[in-house]
Amino acid sequence: MQRVCFLLKIRADRIEEYRARHAAVWPEMLRALSESGWHNYSLFLREDGLLVGYLETEDFEAARAAMEATEVNARWQAEMAGLFESLDGERPDEAMRPLTEVFHLD
């Protein structure tokens, strides 16, 4: 199982909206993530907007591609894009850059 961690930045003026949207993620989005191989997926949000994401998957690139192929992901990414800083024209899911794991304790 591959462990993936990434960082993104939520705009300071949109943090509460980001929290609210994730308190009510669409059921079809949750289903698509699960079916695409995203497991043990968590998002952590610091008060200044730093977002830390963590997930486990057999193959991150395959899981990412499977989500990209879904219609619900396109809708979700379009609705969420305005909440993030520094996307440089990318969708939020395209801007996820996995961090290099340097230590893990089983």
Automatic annotation (TrEMBL):
InterPro entries: Dimeric_a/b-barrel, Rham/fucose_mutarotase
UniProt EC number: 5.1.3.32
Major enzyme class: isomerase
Source organism, top-level taxon: Bacteria
Keyword Isomerase recorded: yes
The entry's keywords: Isomerase
Coiled coil start-end: none
GO terms, biological process: rhamnose catabolic process
GO MF entries: L-rhamnose mutarotase activity
Gene3D superfamilies reported for this sequence: 3.30.70.100
Protein name: L-rhamnose mutarotase
Organism: Streptomyces taklimakanensis
